Amino acid sequence: MNGRTRRAIFGNSVVVLASAGLLVVLSPFWAAIFWAIVLAILFWPLRQRLTRRLPGRKATISGLIILLIVIFILFPAFLLAGLIADGAAAVVTQIQSGAFKPAEVLETLPDRFPKVAKVLPQLGLDLDMIKSMVGEGFVSAGQYAVSHLAGIGQSASAFLFHVFLALYVLFALLQDGDRIYKSFYNSFPASAHSKQKFFAAFSDMAVATIKGMVSVGVVQAFLGGLIFWILGVPSPVFWGALMGLLSVVPPFGAGFIWGPAGIMMMLSGNIQGGLILLAFGATVISMSDNVVRPIVVGRASSVPGYMVLVTTLGGLAMFGLTGLVLGPVIASLFLSVWRLFDEAEHDPELLMSDEPPKAN
What we know:
Layout: H1 3-26, H2 30-53, H3 58-97, H4 109-112, H5 114-122, H6 127-154, H7 156-187, H8 192-230, H9 236-246, H10 255-267, H11 271-297, H12 305-319, H13 323-346
Helix pairs in contact: 2-3, 2-7, 3-6, 3-7, 3-9, 8-9, 8-11, 8-13, 9-10, 10-11, 12-13
């Protein structure tokens, strides 16, 4: 082994170890950094337009974009979280105080649905047992919600720190994004065509996922809150906001709210209202996803719907709320890698060439 080879091995080892060390140091804050990168990609077109109008004022432009994000994204998000927290606390209080007794709805079941009441014993089910299970289930859910609301309050300072860190990193990316991107792009060990595929897959999927989540969430929150308000359901803003949040987590969706609500209305004697809610939820709220998402997202995402579903759930389980975006992004990168290998199989020079593939 000659001296040049030893120096190359040593240099590569130092680079790998330094990179691994940096990843270890930054790992506690990876979610904040990830969201800063996603927001930088999302607002990069606005940054470019402002740069053309205000040349040489990158710091001012970056600060203006941060201010817009705080006013139009963070402030509404905190307001929505407050509404949800207040509504959840009110529901929990009603459950614990006994003002809301969901099991009492089943009292009228034999009179309103005699056939159903006759079938229950044949299935080995007892109405008193069902009432007890429903009551205990709501109490357990209330206690669970109270404990987690307390946990949210205790972790608020950590959450605010991560928000501040994400905004700080975002400010740096908006200022020096061109230089940072060129540095990563030039040092990425692949051909120009491969690098374009990788970076485009990340940016396109991240933007498409966020646009789809936000648009569907807003529409379903508005539709759900509207129908609850029309039918006289208490706390329509709270339930609408909750439906909007659940709509971004397939396959659960807003149906986990309007479905049981419609059934409870029917069991409590409001059959017409329950049928209207179930019909509106099935035909308008649920179907709005199929209408809004393609319009907003368009063809920005090349990932099949079934893979988006699976990777969204997997990302949510592994990384929390950040996984709602990170999961589909990983899927997009995965498909891009295999497409590049497929192209290289027909053209072995492609992975090493800086020229894009020729159109067939």
